[in-house]
């Protein structure tokens, strides 16, 4: 069996990333879109950790910790916006958020 | 014997560290069986103890003094009809108790019953424990949602809010204990469970007494948060039967319900283990610095045997005090057998303690030592388990807003203050 | 020297009290307000005592000034202004937050804090049942802050801060009963009249800066004493006159005295503290402080003396017939202030200052006594409705009797010594050049004795004239009110002894204490051939001639005469008693009773509240004229201009509508429309569309980097 | 940690067997696919939890136990609970009858596919950039080393101390934002 190299991890990360992008671009439910963003961030984290292993230092891991903190902040703020929005319009569908549409 | 069995014997490492999967599996099974047994006996003990708190007898009919009650309950639960409410999300309803159970039991991989008596010694041990035990919330939330019913949903929302809130105070209290581990000459602490106990060993003090009263306060905060974290009285808002019938598992029955119960008691044991590990010196026997020497070692190594002897004596007293009527004969014999069993265990322990007190004896002294480690650890955990029962018998339930207020406005500031104070004192004294 | 070095803290102490009152006073209880407000004044008084003690050990009787400059609060920085000094040398315009302590300020410091303390204590009783109790004490403490600033200032600008501040406090306290129209208009009157004086003060101070290049008293005195300026220097004379205008305003001299009688609308303790004992003497203080300038301006000195003497007799004449007890005292105050300026004007600075000192005690006493009477009479102020109060309020009676004896100049009460010193100096100064003013002063003394004993008889001795309802309500007074009276009475009795004249075998210690401040001016006057002025103590040591004894006996006789006439006229005054002046000289009585129609004249000439036929003069007249000018000339010009503008704008509007809007704006807008359709694709308003564009960008970057 | 454990650790056989990797990777990708396709949001969330846990497993295989622990405690224990909470607050009855995907989905899918193709091209083209070798990172002192980078050693500022503080500030701002936005206005 082929030994597992960095590239393997990168491909997994790319797949996760693309799945996240698909989620963001196609789903209507805002909650799922936020979850897809989490997927994207995780893909990035996976890349960073894999590179960290590749170079043999820990900077990538530290970066991934920062990204995790950022993801938590993003989730809190995003869900806050979602709830505020839901309270006003009784919907969480992203294509019904169209106040700025012409 | 195969190599993978013998090679590990006498090792001072945990199976995980030694890379010995066989022994790791053995440990896992032993722990699983032990925890299940402990939960069953807890079930019996809780009912009896609560009954005596309330001047009742508790279960008396199934077996002598109701000793077989847990088994009867287990059989009943297994045979009960498994109801899934209409409109429930079947898959999620099915998976929810498993999440809770998985989280509760996964934690046991890093609990150090002794310096090498753990499945694995993880570098991130305590972080792993907190993380995995926080997964238990998911089971509760999902169970409440999947039931498609109002009581469980409210119960789930309450309990998840409660658990998330108290996790914060709990985590900060834990951090102040971890901070104490870094007070050595290298200045690096550790998150490893075994490492934490080792740090207490090296510093010669249980962290509960370190920087008195800082360690004590952190411990008290943790002890309160841990009750809330496991949804036990007086913080059992999630299953407040007077308001929510039974909280998030109202719609559960039979085996699934028993899984929730199992998870709850397993979680109780695991958080108690954390408290013991972090503040009460883990497997260390009391006064290990003060009362040293072979004589004291011998005396303390006799403790397990003495404990079982005491239990056996209690059983025999029970036999003697049984009514002298023919219809009590079976019970009498059963209790006597149980007493003999306990006495036999005590005898074995006594032999090990006496024979294994020096190297080169018939029984390796490591066995003796291991029994001591496990004994002291379990004894400390047992005290916590009794406290859980005692709380439930004594204190009235909190109101939900009071509960949240205590969590955020009392415990959180206190634990933050203690953390900062610990850091300052640590810097000043180093 | 701890307190001396930190003397700048002294004004801060009452300021703290004021701040507490203004921020928290509404919520405090009476006992707390008392504790804070009396407490800060007690602290200030003790502070002042210790500071003065430390100062005297610092100066060793040399009168050397102690100056403490904390920082520069008002300054031009490095920018320099031309000054007339040294042929237009450039000076920086700097005013320090600086504090100066010399014998003069010591005197003021002690009696201001001391009398202030007593009056504060008195007020706790007097104001006990008034609304806005905390407000009253806040204002009082604020006043103490500004008064101490004024006294301790080391330059004219700093002094001006205190000067305006006490004016503000005075305004606030006169208008304390602001719901009463008369009170608020009296407050306005006081404020406005004071402003006229303040203009003089500022102009005088700026003239001095322009001419001498500094605001500091020490610098100015040093320059003035350097002999570089001849006596009668015109600029200095002008500056001195301008400063005196300021003093006239603050100290209620002719012609700016009109606000002081009306200021009696304020609570009586305010009248006692501000409008009798302390604030109104600020003008005297300022003139005394500027003595170095004044001696170089003999014309100004003469003006001061004449204005002082005229004010003295003019005010006394009005006091003769007033029926409101507080107004009598108010005119009496004006009259006594006139005495002080007379003293300053003839060069008897020490005597003037001494009269300020003694006057503070007995006038405060008299005002507080009148306050007690008013309190006992449940607010009645008209003496025609009093009488026979002697046994009802005995403490008030005998303390006021002491005060009356003091102001009437009866030996050995305080007023005798100070008044006698002034008259004696007036008699002897410049070899008798001012003797005409002596006669004026003597007549005033006689009138003073008359109206004061008239007051005493009408209130305490004559028959009971009040209505039965009020008579039953007359009550005794609390300790907090009588105790200050007793202390002030003892002071009125004893204060004069500080300056027991050498002619009577005393040592004139007060004069010796203050003397160093004026010592140099004595020399100046000596050189100018005007010996016989200045420093009473020195002079008296040289001449104790028979004339002085004669004058003393004469002034005693004047007091006795006034007493006698009053005794005769009012001893048995019943309900329908007759004023002796009204009987003998009814026309004069009418004139005096209407206060020489001065207020009416001012209304005609200055304010314009009264019309002369159809013509309005004064401020309102100017306003009417300006209004006429505005409506007739300015407005019509504006209307004409407006018409022109409208015509132009009609034209402009057409241009705007069709050329600018139509062609330029809308044309361009329509031009952009097709481009906008393209650009709009990127701003679809759908979040996911934006995300898609982001992904497109990502792909673009990726392609670029991979196939670069 | 004492040195005995470190010494044995170096000789220890790596746990990273290919089977584990393929298993975890498949689990992660399949459940990620479920996340974006499930109609029921709770199912999506559960699938996302599985993805996160598998990614945590991958981290463990990459000798990053601390990151794995943070992943579990922050994502699985914190963020996902928050998500579930919000899902319960937001009424989702309606979503059963509604369209799952927005009208843009063909374009989105096309763009995403293009992106994935691009990634693959990049990997193939840049094959040389990613060596087969994998460094052996010390697992037993991972946490301590990360702490060294974040907080610094022996009184010296760490390389990322400042960034760490900024991150905490970011979290604070996010908390405030969430509280302000969700608070009911009177």
Task: Describe the 3D structure.
The complex is a heterotetramer of chains A (102), B (430), C (708) and D (186). Chain A has 102 residues and is mainly α. Chain A has helices at 6-26, 30-55, 59-89. Chain A has a single domain (6-92), classed as Helix Hairpins (Orthogonal Bundle). The longest helix of chain A has 31 residues, at 59-89. Chain A is elongated and about 50 Å long. Chain B has helices at residues 3-6, 15-18, 21-53, 69-79, 90-106, 125-134, 136-146, 150-181, 193-203, 214-229, 241-244, 254-279, 294-301, 303-320, 329-355, 365-394, 400-429. Chain B is globular, with a radius of gyration of 23 Å. In chain B, helix 5 (90-106) packs parallel to helix 12 (254-279) and helix 7 runs antiparallel to helix 8. Chain C is mainly alpha-helical and 708 residues long. Chain C is built from 29 helices and 2 strands. Chain C is globular and about 120 Å long. Chain C has helices spanning 2-5, 9-24, 30-59, 103-126, 133-152, 156-174, 181-212, 217-225, 234-250, 259-262, 268-277, 282-289, 291-295, 298-319, 325-345, 349-376, 394-408, 414-428, 435-461, 468-473, 479-494, 509-527, 536-542, 546-570, 580-584, 586-593, 598-607, 618-680, 687-706, and strands spanning 66-82, 90-101. The longest helix of chain C has 63 residues, at 618-680. The interface between A and D is large, with 74 and 89 residues.
Give the H and E element order of chain A. Answer: HHH
> What do we call the CATH topology of chain A?
Helix Hairpins
- The H/E string of chain B reads HHHHHHHHHHHHHHHHH
What is the overall pLDDT average of chain A? 87
List keywords for this structure.
heterotetramer; B: 430 residues; mainly alpha; 2 domains; 0% strand; globular; D: mainly alpha; 7 helices
């Amino acid at each position: 069996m082929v030994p597992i190299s960095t590239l393997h991890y990168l491909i997994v990360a790319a797949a996760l990333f693309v799945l996240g992008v698909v989620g963001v671009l196609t789903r209507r439910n805002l909650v799922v879109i936020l979850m897809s963003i989490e997927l994207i961030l995780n893909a990035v984290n996976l890349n960073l950790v894999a590179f960290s292993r590749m170079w043999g230092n820990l900077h990538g891991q530290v970066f991934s910790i920062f990204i995790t903190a950022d993801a938590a902040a993003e989730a809190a703020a995003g869900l806050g916006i979602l709830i505020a929005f839901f309270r006003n319009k009784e919907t969480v569908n992203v294509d019904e958020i169209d106040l700025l549409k012409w | 014997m195969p190599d993978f069995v013998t090679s590990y014997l006498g090792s001072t490492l945990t199976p995980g560290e030694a890379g010995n999967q066989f022994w790791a599996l053995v440990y896992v099974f032993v722990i699983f069986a032990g925890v299940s047994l402990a939960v069953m006996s807890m079930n019996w003990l809780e009912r009896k103890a609560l009954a005596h708190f309330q001047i009742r007898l508790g279960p008396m009919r199934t077996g002598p003094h109701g000793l077989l009650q847990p088994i009867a309950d287990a059989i009943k639960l297994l045979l009960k009809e498994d109801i899934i409410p209409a409109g429930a999300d079947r898959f999620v309803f099915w998976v929810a108790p498993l999440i809770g159970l998985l989280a509760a039991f996964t934690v046991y991989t890093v609990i150090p019953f002794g310096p090498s008596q753990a499945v694995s010694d993880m570098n991130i041990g305590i972080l792993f424990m907190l993380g995995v035990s926080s997964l238990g919330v998911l089971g509760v939330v999902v169970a409440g949602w999947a039931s498609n019913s109002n009581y469980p949903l409210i119960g789930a929302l309450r309990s998840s809010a409660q658990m998330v809130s108290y996790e914060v105070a709990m985590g900060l209290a834990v951090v102040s204990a971890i901070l104490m581990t870094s007070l050595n000459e290298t200045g690096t602490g550790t998150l490893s469970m075994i490492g934490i106990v080792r740090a207490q060993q090296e510093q010669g003090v249980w962290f509960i007494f370190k920087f008195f009263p800082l360690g004590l306060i952190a411990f008290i905060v943790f002890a309160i948060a841990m009750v809330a974290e496991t949804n036990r009285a007086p913080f059992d808002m999630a299953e407040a039967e007077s308001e929510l019938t039974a909280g998030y598992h109202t719609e559960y029955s039979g085996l699934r319900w028993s899984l929730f119960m199992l998870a709850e008691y397993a979680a109780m044991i695991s958080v108690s283990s954390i408290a013991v590990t972090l503040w009460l010196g883990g497997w260390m026997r009391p006064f290990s610095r003060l009362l040293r020497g072979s004589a004291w070692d011998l005396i303390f190594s006799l403790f397990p045997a003495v404990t079982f002897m005491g239990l056996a004596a209690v059983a025999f007293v029970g036999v003697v005090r049984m009514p002298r009527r023919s219809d009590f004969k079976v019970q009498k014999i059963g209790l006597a057998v149980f007493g003999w069993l306990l006495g036999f265990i005590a005898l074995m322990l006594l032999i090990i303690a006496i024979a294994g007190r020096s190297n080169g004896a018939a029984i390796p002294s490591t066995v003796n030592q291991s029994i001591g480690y496990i004994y002291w650890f379990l004894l400390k955990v047992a005290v916590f388990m009794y406290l859980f029962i005692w709380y439930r018998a004594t204190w009235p339930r909190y109101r939900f807003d009071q509960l949240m207020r205590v969590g955020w406005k009392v415990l959180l500031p206190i634990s933050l203050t203690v953390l900062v104070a610990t850091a300052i004192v640590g810097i000043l004294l180093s | 020297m701890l307190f001396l070095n930190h003397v700048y803290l002294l004004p801060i102490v009452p300021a703290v009290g004021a701040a507490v009152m203004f921020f928290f006073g509404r919520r405090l209880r009476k006992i707390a307000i008392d504790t804070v407000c009396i407490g800060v004044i007690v602290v200030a008084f003790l502070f002042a005592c210790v500071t003065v003690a430390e100062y005297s050990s610092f100066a060793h009787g040399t009168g050397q000034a102690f100056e403490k400059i904390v920082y520069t609060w008002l300054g031009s920085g490095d920018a320099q202004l031309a000054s007339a000094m040294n042929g237009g040398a450039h000076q920086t315009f700097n005013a320090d937050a600086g504090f100066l302590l010399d014998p003069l300020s010591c005197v003021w410091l002690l009696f201001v804090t001391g009398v202030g303390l007593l009056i504060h204590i008195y007020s706790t009783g007097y104001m006990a049942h008034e609304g806005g109790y905390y407000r009253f004490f806040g204002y009082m403490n604020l006043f103490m802050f500004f008064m101490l600033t004024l006294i301790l200032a080391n330059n004219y600008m700093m002094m001006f801060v205190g000067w305006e501040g006490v004016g503000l406090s005075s305004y606030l306290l006169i208008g304390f009963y602001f719901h009463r129209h008369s009170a608020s208009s009296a407050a306005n009157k006081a404020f406005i009249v004071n402003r006229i004086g303040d203009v003089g003060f500022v102009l005088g101070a700026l003239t001095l800066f322009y001419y001498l290049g500094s605001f500091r008293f020490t610098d100015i005195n040093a320059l003035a004493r350097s002999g570089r300026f001849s006596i009668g220097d015109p600029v200095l004379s002008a500056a001195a006159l301008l400063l005196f205008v300021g003093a006239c305003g603050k100290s209620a001299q002719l012609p700016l005295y009109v606000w002081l009688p009306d200021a009696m609308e304020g609570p009586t303790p305010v009248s006692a503290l501000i409008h009798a004992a302390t604030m109104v003497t600020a003008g005297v203080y300022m003139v005394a402080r500027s003595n170095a300038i004044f001696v170089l301006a003999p014309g100004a000195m003469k003006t001061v003396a004449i204005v002082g003497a005229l004010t003295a007799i003019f005010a006394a004449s009005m006091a003769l017939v007033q029926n409101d007890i507080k107004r009598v005292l108010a005119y009496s105050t004006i009259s006594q202030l006139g005495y002080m300026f007379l003293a300053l004007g003839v060069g008897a600075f020490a005597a003037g200052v001494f009269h300020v000192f003694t006057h503070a005690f007995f006038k405060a006493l008299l005002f507080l006594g009148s306050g007690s009477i008013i309190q006992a009479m449940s607010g009645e102020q008209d003496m025609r409705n009093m009488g026979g109060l002697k046994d009802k309020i005995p403490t008030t009676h005998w303390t006021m009797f002491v005060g009356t004896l003091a102001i009437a100049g009866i030996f050995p009460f305080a007023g005798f010594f100070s008044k006698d010193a002034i008259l004696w100096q007036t008699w002897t100064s410049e070899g008798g050049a001012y003797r005409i003013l002596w006669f004026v002063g003597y007549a005033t003394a006689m009138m003073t004795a008359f109206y004061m004993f008239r007051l005493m008889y009408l209130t305490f001795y004559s028959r009971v004239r009040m209505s039965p309802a009020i008579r039953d309500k007359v009550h005794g007074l609390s300790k907090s009110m009588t105790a200050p009276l007793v202390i002030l009475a003892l002071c009125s009795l004893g204060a004069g002894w500080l300056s027991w004249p050498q002619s009577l075998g005393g040592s004139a210690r007060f004069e010796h204490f203050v003397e160093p401040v004026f010592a140099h001016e004595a020399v100046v006057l000596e050189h100018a051939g005007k010996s016989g002025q200045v420093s009473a103590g020195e002079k008296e040591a040289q001449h104790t001639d028979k004339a002085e004894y004669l004058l003393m006996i004469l002034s005693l006789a004047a007091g006795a005469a006034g007493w006698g006439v009053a005794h005769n006229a009012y001893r048995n005054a019943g309900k329908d008693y007759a004023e002796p002046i009204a009987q003998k000289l009814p026309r004069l009585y009418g004139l005096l009773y209407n206060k020489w129609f001065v207020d009416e004249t001012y209304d005609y000439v200055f304010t314009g509240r009264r019309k002369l036929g159809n013509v309005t003069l004064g401020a309102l007249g100017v306003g009417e004229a300006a209004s006429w000018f505005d409506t007739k000339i300015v407005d019509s010009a504006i209307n004409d201009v407006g018409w022109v503008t409208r015509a132009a704008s009609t034209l402009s509007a057409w241009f705007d509508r069709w050329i600018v809007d139509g062609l330029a704006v809308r044309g361009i807008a329509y031009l952009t429309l097709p481009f906008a359709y393209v650009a709009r694709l990127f701003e679809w308003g759908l979040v996911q569309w934006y995300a898609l564009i982001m992904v497109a960008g990502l792909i673009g970057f990726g392609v670029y980097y991979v196939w670069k | 940690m004492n040195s005995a454990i470190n010494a044995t650790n170096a000789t220890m056989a790596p746990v990273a067997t290919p089977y584990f990797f393929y298993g975890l990777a498949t689990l992660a990708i399949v459940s990620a696919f479920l996340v974006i396709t499930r109609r029921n949001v709770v199912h999506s969330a559960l699938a996302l939890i599985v993805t996160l846990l598998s990614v945590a497993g991958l981290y463990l295989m990459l000798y990053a136990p601390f990151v794995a622990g943070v992943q579990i405690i922050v994502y699985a224990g914190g963020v996902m609970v928050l998500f579930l909470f919000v899902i319960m607050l937001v009424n989702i009855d309606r979503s059963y009858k509604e369209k799952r995907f927005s009208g843009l989905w063909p374009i989105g899918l096309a763009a995403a596919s293009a992106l994935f193709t691009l990634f693959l091209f990049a990997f193939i083209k840049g094959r040389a950039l990613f060596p087969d070798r994998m460094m052996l990172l010390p697992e037993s002192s991972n946490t301590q080393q990360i702490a060294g980078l974040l907080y610094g050693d022996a009184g010296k500022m760490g390389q990322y101390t400042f960034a760490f503080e900024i991150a905490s500030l970011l979290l604070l701002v996010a908390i405030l934002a969430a509280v302000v936005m969700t608070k009911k206005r009177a």
